[in-house]
Design a protein that fits this description.
It is a single chain. The protein has 275 residues and is α/β, with parallel strands linked by helices. The protein is built from twelve helices and eight strands. It has a six-stranded parallel beta sheet with strand order 2-1-3-4-5-7, with helices on both faces. Strands 6-8 form a two-stranded parallel ribbon. Helix 3 (73-86) links the parallel strand 3 (59-62) and strand 4. The longest helix has 14 residues, at 73-86. It is globular. It starts with 6 loop residues before the first strand and ends in a 6-residue tail after the last helix. The mean pLDDT is 95. The protein binds NADP nicotinamide-adenine-dinucleotide phosphate (NAP). NADP nicotinamide-adenine-dinucleotide phosphate is lined by residues 11-17, 35-37, 42-45, 63-65, 67-69, 95, 97, 122, 124-125, 128, 132.
């Protein structure tokens, strides 16, 4: 970037946004956190908060919440992108998801907004096991999900933050769609086994039915939209459509993606999965 205007990082305290903020800040590039705890406050559900948050920024990293697969996400992300362009903020990096109808619609909305876009279309994050809804099950020694042997190429959020950093700070990434996966397909049972090995603990993986999963999410009193989303991801998206590796990390970063076992070993060492 040629100026020192801040980068607005939507979801800037979340899994990818927090790491992107660290990378930009360490290089002296100012950031503005776009979230409900940011200043000014940014809330996807309150459009009146959008324009104040984008004043004076040079670029935006768009990480939608709760998930870009949720119906209506495309319209919301599209409305945000058009407003940003109208306010003179054209550089945008969109965090998207693989094999998700709504996510691919959101990508089209951003492209049509007139933005100078880069899209990071990502596989599942390993960090869902440590910074998301699965951490408690791992601590308790049993993960039960409605997913069988389908392979998922988990992509580490460190690689995604590196890719976003490069896209925002180096030339040549406008108009590029990078499909980001890790280097290996793992089933959810494989992933849990890797974590069990890294922790030295006995952690079981059990495949349950969708009905059992729905009952379990109800017992945890998850908000209905999150329960809907989890079922959608496990039924629609984990049906084998994403069971392929891509060269996206190599293309954008010029190096191989981080392996799940490196994530599992590093994260186990923090003690987060200790019971
Ligand atoms: N997780 C995956 O495996 C995966 C894979 C591919 C793509 N994605 C996509 O990545 C995006 C982020 O997902 P994630 O799981 O990584 O979540 P995350 O970024 O960890 O989500 C938390 C962030 O969202 C902010 N937030 C929460 N409610 C908000 C609201 N109403 N308005 C504005 N900001 C709000 C939080 O800050 P405050 O609490 O301060 O508001 C925090 O910064 C989603 O669009 C998802 O579809 C995720």
């Amino acid at each position: 970037m040629t100026d020192t205007k801040p980068v607005l990082i939507l979801g800037g305290t979340g899994k990818t946004g927090r790491r992107l903020a660290e990378r930009l800040t360490s290089q002296g590039i100012p950031v503005r956190i776009g979230s409900r705890s940011g200043s000014p406050r940014f809330d996807w559900e309150v459009p009146a908060t959008w324009e104040p948050a984008m004043q004076g920024v040079g670029a935006v990293y768009i990480s939608y919440y709760p998930d870009i697969a949720v119906p209506g996400a495309a319209e919301t992300v599209g409305a945000f992108a058009r407003l940003a362009v109208a306010n003179g903020v054209t550089r945008m990096v969109l965090l998207s998801g693989r094999g998700e109808t709504e996510a691919q619609r959101a990508e089209e909305m951003v492209k049509a907004s007139g933005a100078d876009w880069t899209i990071l279309r990502c596989a599942w994050f390993p960090q869902n096991f440590s910074e998301g809804f699965l951490v408690e099950s791992l601590r308790q020694g049993e993960v039960a999900l409605p997913v069988g042997p389908v392979g998922e190429p988990f992509v580490d959020v460190d690689d995604i933050a590196d890719a976003a950093f490069v896209a925002l700070t180096e030339p040549g990434h406008v108009g590029q769609l990078y499909e980001l996966t890790g280097p290996r397909l793992l089933s959810f049972a494989d992933a849990v086994a890797e974590i069990a090995k890294a922790t030295g603990r006995d952690i079981r993986y059990i495949k349950i039915s969708h009905d059992e999963f729905t009952a379990a999410t109800a017992a945890y009193e998850l908000p209905p939209e999150i329960a809907w989303l989890l079922n959608e991801l496990f039924t629609e998206v984990l049906d084998g459509r994403n069971e392929t590796l891509t060269d996206g990390v190599q293309r954008v970063l010029g190096r191989a993606p981080k392996d799940f076992s490196a994530y599992a070993n590093e994260t186990a060492a923090t003690g987060i999965w200790s019971n």
